[in-house]
Amino acid sequence: MIRYNLAKEGYTVQTVATGEKAVKAARANPPDLVVLDLMLPGMDGWEVCKILKNDAKTRHVPIIMLTAKSEDTDVVTGLELGAEDYIAKPFSPKVLIARIRASLRRRKKPAAEEGATLRAHELVINPGRHEVLAAGKPIELTFTEFRILLLLAGRPGWVFSRYQIVEGIRGEEYAVTDRAVDVQIVGLRKKLGRFGKYIETVRGVGYRFQE
Hints:
Rossmann fold; four-stranded antiparallel beta sheet; three-stranded parallel beta sheet; 9 helices
C-alpha cells in the first residue's frame, strides 16, 4: 500500500522485507529517504537505524519510522537513534506523504536559503555544509540536533519554548512530546561537550543560547 501510494505521487520506491536487506540496499545505493518499519524479521528497525546512522555513507539519509509502537519511550528511542520522524499505525497515507515531502524539502533546501555561516562563542555553524566546528574540531550532529542548534544560536538570549523549537525545525503541524524535545537537547549538549553549557535551560519556559 505504501509503495503504491508513493509511486502514484511520482517517487521511485525500493522495498525490502528484512532489516539485513535494508542495510545492504541503503549502503549499495543511498536513498533520499528511508521509511522504516520497526517490527522486522531478523534484524529489527532499531538496529537498522543505528547501523545506518553510524555509517558515513548513510548517516545523513533521513529516516521516518513507521510502527505500531506509539509509547513516548518508543518515540524518544527513535529520536535518540537519529530518526527524523515517527508515525504510529494506523496512519493516513496522505499524512505519510506529507511528512516525506516536508523531510525532502528540508534536505534539499539550498545553502542560500539556509543563511550564512554563523559564529557564536567558540562554535562555527555552517548551514550549507551541515557542519559544526567547536574550537576548530568537527562535531557530528543528527539533522534534528543541527537544526535545534542553528535555531537557538541564531538568536542568542532569546528564549524558545519547546513548541517554538518544534515549529521552527519541523513545522507547526508536527506533533511531538515535551520529553522528545528535552532528549534532543540532552543529546546535543553531550555531543558539544564543554560547549554544551551555552544552551541554557529556562525553567518552566524552554531553552536559550547564551548571549
